[in-house]
Design a protein that fits this description.
heterodimer; A: mainly alpha; 8 helices; B: 479 residues; mainly alpha; 45% helix
């Protein structure tokens, strides 16, 4: 899956400053990246896994991998957002691969968390799980386009940059992804009715 | 009309901006049916947009953990691998690329020390081997290393790519021998027979290989060698002037070898064909007539020996007549032995068959079995004489069992054996079973002689339809 998401070339730590000043600069830069991207990455992961703890762990792992990559190869040459989303997607896919055989279902106490309308919250949660399950039947690329565009609210151009594809390809993936999602939702509804 | 993919993208934008579904479908009425399901799928994603954030303590803890990890990583930068350090060092020393990656200020000094150590170790490891090779190459006859030098030269000759390279190498080695002789003389020693032998060998081999080269290459090579040989002759003459009495003789011999070689080179340069002939390539020039290079054209050759006898495959002229090279033409052969018996397929001449006096023909054979056909291939009619030992002469055999029929090689019932016109009609065989010929090769019905060893003539059994095969056909023999 990592290979599927093409990573940009990595460049070294280019700096003419001394090691101490360079270290401070790198630390500040990494801290800035965390502040800027932690929430979007957490949101992206949460929308895919629907679990606070798991989403927190996976988001933390995304930034841990960033740090390791910077240590070994320097800061990514490609856009930082694209690198982070790709890494997050890979982690989500790995997570679902691990979970495939034990059909992860949220615990009951997760569903009821003291909201004003517990019944409405449960129904909302059930709907979200139904859509999330249907999403799992889409292809990897279709899932990414749907998640980035409809859940993260990115534009076609931004999604194209992250996935390293053309805007036309993104539109096509969006069309096919929605069609597939509609088919699976309809099938799920039919199944529930019978 | 727009493609549905583009229309969907526009409709999704409109939906995101808050336009109503009905107005969007109305705008794209021609594709409304398809758009409706797709837009409803997009709307179904809405519940997923909500995000439950972790508790603030968890968020703070995650952040602090990451920043601590960053601080630790910056304090302890990862040391680059040795390969990376070497690449950087070469880039810095030989300046083949601009250095963009900053390095520690002590790194060049460390790498210089490391490279110096590597060079020292390499010198210690390979220096001794190189010195030995050098000493071997400069050794002289009588030195303990000289055999090693000769072995190396032989190895070089073995791995030479082609005969041309081999020829050049032989000439180089001949020069080496001459130089060794000079050095020996200068050092007050006498060149031994070993060097002389080596010199002669290399010169001969070089000329031999040169004779096999194409014309142009051969001429160039010989011209080049001619100059080299001249120089060696001069060098030997100089050495001879300095040599004492004992060393004079070997030098004179070596000079003689070089002069002889020089003569041959001149022959090669003037008459390539003669040079080749001298070294075993091509015909002798003066014997090649216009008709055929290999001999006179009129077809006569006094003194020529038949080429076919060279490898002893053809008949010698005094052993075979013109009629038949294998024997006398009159059909008689004194002293000939029947070749057919060599492998025991026919009767031995000294074993009388039943059909001849002394054989079983006079005494009816009760249980005779063909003896002359150990391998059961039967007697050929043209080789079975009237006294064929293979079977009774009268065509009767009481105890005979049809041996030649099991695999249907025996006589056909409708073809009575020559031994009796009607075959076994005199003694019909109603229920005889083909027991014989377990070796599956009986007498050919149409080739059996009157007393064929496979049994008396193919009796026609009443129900026999064949030569007594396993299919129940009755054999053609008597019981």
């Amino acid at each position: 899956m990592v290979g599927h998401l093409k990573q940009g070339r990595l460049r070294g730590l280019v700096s003419r400053a001394g090691p101490r000043a360079r270290g401070a600069a790198d630390r500040e830069r990494l801290a800035g990246i965390y502040e800027q991207f932690h929430e979007p990455i957490y949101s992206y992961v949460y929308r895919r896994v629907s679990d606070v703890e798991m989403a927190s762990d996976l988001a933390a792992e995304v930034f841990h991998r960033l740090l390791r990559s910077v240590q070994q190869h320097g800061f990514p040459e490609c856009e930082m957002r694209a690198w982070l989303y790709r890494t997050a997607h890979n982690l989500v896919v790995d997570h679902y691969r691990r979970q495939r055989h034990r059909q992860h279902l949220p615990l009951e106490e997760d569903l009821v968390d003291g909201g004003e309308d517990p019944a409405g919250l449960v129904e909302q949660k059930a709907n979200a799980d139904r859509v999330r399950r249907a999403l799992q039947h889409l292809t990897d690329s279709q899932q990414q386009v749907i998640a980035l565009k409809f859940l993260q609210g990115l534009t076609n151009q931004e999604v194209a940059e992250i996935l390293d594809r053309s805007v036309g390809a993104i539109k096509l993936l969006q069309h096919r992804g929605l069609a597939a999602l509609q088919r699976h939702l309809a099938a799920d509804e039919e199944k529930a009715r019978t | 009309m727009r493609d549905l993919t583009d229309t969907l993208d526009i409709a999704l934008d409109q939906l995101r901006k808050g336009e109503g579904l009905s107005s969007i479908l109305e705008e794209h009425a021609s594709q409304a049916a398809d758009l409706r399901s797709l837009l409803s799928a997009a709307e179904a994603l809405e519940p997923l947009r909500q995000v439950e954030m972790p508790a603030s303590e968890r968020q703070l803890a995650d952040r602090n953990r990451f920043l601590a990890e960053v601080a630790r990583a910056v304090r302890q930068p990862t040391r680059p691998s040795l390969v990376v350090r070497l690449r950087r060092w070469f880039a810095q020393v030989f300046a083949w690329q601009a250095i963009t990656t900053p390095v520690h200020r002590r790194e060049p000094r460390r790498m210089n020390a490391l490279m110096l150590k590597l060079v020292l170790v390499a010198t210690m490891l390979f220096g001794s081997a190189g010195g030995t090779a050098f000493a071997t190459a400069n050794s002289l006859p009588g030195s303990p290393l000289y055999p090693a030098k000769l072995a190396v030269e032989q190895a070089r000759l073995q791995i030479a790519a082609n005969p041309t390279d081999q020829a050049q190498l032989h000439m180089i080695l001949a020069q080496a021998r001459v130089q060794e002789m000079e050095q020996l003389v200068v050092s007050g020693r006498e060149p031994g027979q070993e060097v002389m032998y080596q010199l002669q060998q290399h010169l001969d081999q070089a000329l031999q290989l040169a004779a096999g080269m194409p014309d142009e290459a051969m001429q160039g090579t010989l011209a080049q060698w001619e100059q080299q040989i001249q120089q060696q002759e001069q060098a030997l003459q100089q050495a001879g002037s300095q040599a004492d009495g004992a060393a004079q003789e070997p030098l004179r011999q070596a000079l003689g070898m070089l002069q002889q070689t020089q003569q041959q080179l001149q022959v090669g340069l003037e008459d390539a064909q003669a040079f080749r002939w001298q070294h075993g390539y091509g015909p002798q020039p003066e014997e090649s007539g216009p008709e055929a290079p290999g001999g006179p054209g009129e077809g006569t050759c006094d003194g020529c020996e038949p080429a076919g006898d060279q490898h002893q495959y053809g008949p010698l002229p005094d052993e075979a007549g013109p009629e038949d090279p294998r024997g006398p033409g009159d059909g008689t052969c004194d002293g000939c032995e029947p070749a057919g018996d060599q492998h025991q397929y026919g009767p031995q001449p000294d074993q009388p068959g039943p059909g001849e006096p002394g054989g079983p023909a006079d005494a009816p054979c009760d249980d005779c079995e063909p003896e002359g056909d150990q391998h059961q291939y039967g007697t050929k009619p043209d080789t079975s004489g009237p006294e064929d030992p293979g079977g009774p002469g009268d065509g009767t055999c009481d105890g005979c069992e049809p041996e030649g029929d099991q695999q249907q090689y025996g006589p056909q019932p409708e073809q009575p054996g020559p031994g009796e016109p009607g075959g076994s009609a005199d003694a019909p065989c109603d229920d005889c079973e083909p027991d014989g010929d377990q070796h599956q090769h009986g007498t050919q019905p149409d080739t059996s002689g009157p007393e064929a060893p496979g049994g008396p003539g193919g009796g026609s059994g009443d129900g026999g339809t064949s030569g007594g095969g396993q299919d129940g056909g009755t054999g053609g023999g008597h019981r």
